[in-house]
Model the fold of this input.
Amino acid sequence: MNTPSKPKANRPGLRRRPILGSAAVLALLSVLYWTVIASDRYISQAHAIIQSTDITSGQTMDLSSLLGNSNSGNRTDQLLLRDYLLSVDMLKKLDAKLGLRAHYSDKAHDVLSRMWFDDVSLEKFYDYYLSRVSIEFDEYAGVLVINAQAYDAKMAHAITATLVAEGERFMNKLAHELAQEQVDFLKQEIEQIRADTMTARQAMLNFQNKYGMVSPEATTENVAGIVNSLEAKLTDLQTTRAAMLGYLMPDSANISELNLQISAVEKQIAREKARLTSTSSKTLNRTVEEYQRLKMNAEFTQDIYKTALVALEKGRFEASRTLKKMSILQTPTLPEYALEPRRFYNSTVSLIVILLTAGILQLLAAIIRDHKD
Done:
């Protein structure tokens, strides 16, 4: 006589419900991981702000500036600094200085949270870096909040301190390079203007040496004065001769002597006037005109040179006045206890997720069995 088989309802619960059994095992492993196995991670934090050294005379202090709303103009600088601190270049500097690869891949830490190998590709290393370092921008306060996680407190503090130091260096370098480019451009222009000024002044010197005149204008004025005096003397002689002709014969000795003097003065006047103006290219009026052109050019270039020097000093002042400065509101903290992982919170969430998933799967399995029956 065959023994009837035991009903399925009497089989052990876990064997009859493998989903619930698997869920129980996963829940146990999850709680065990979060409470015992998961490695402690320490978080170091710092707060920074970008400020401009530009202080204009028309700037006023109002309530909005005191509340921090004046930082809206530095939003671009804050985001630029954030992008740099989260860049691959920054990661390479941190790794070279602190040995992040070795720290994050240390086998002493749990396998799920650490980086599995220290020779992973740069892309995977960078993804892991972004999961351990966060830089948030507070839109309201205009403050950058820097957080860095590490498996010991000193390393977390070192990462944050290095980020702050590199951020300060980057902003100072960026601002100084921009200011220096402006000043260098002004310096180049001034050097060119200075060379033009020296060329113009040398042309004046060469002209003076060529004609043997320090000031052609003064020489011209002297010649004009000589002509005026000769003409006055000629007038006196002619007046004297006219008076003597009233009582002397034209061929008398005195009249002949006056005639000789008048002739000599007239010839001298003609020679002096020839020095001033004539069709020749060596007259004083042409010399003065050429000299005045050279002098005007030299004075013009010198005025430009003076203006450029003033512009350079003003440019230096403006460049220094508009520099950006990274100010630290909170220095990097040295954590005293591990904030991550949040063991109770993570265990609770894991249990809820596992149980909900198991319940859904169990319900689906029951529906499938009912349809088969």
Summary: The longest strand covers residues 42-52. The CA atoms of residues 85 and 166 lie 8 Å apart.
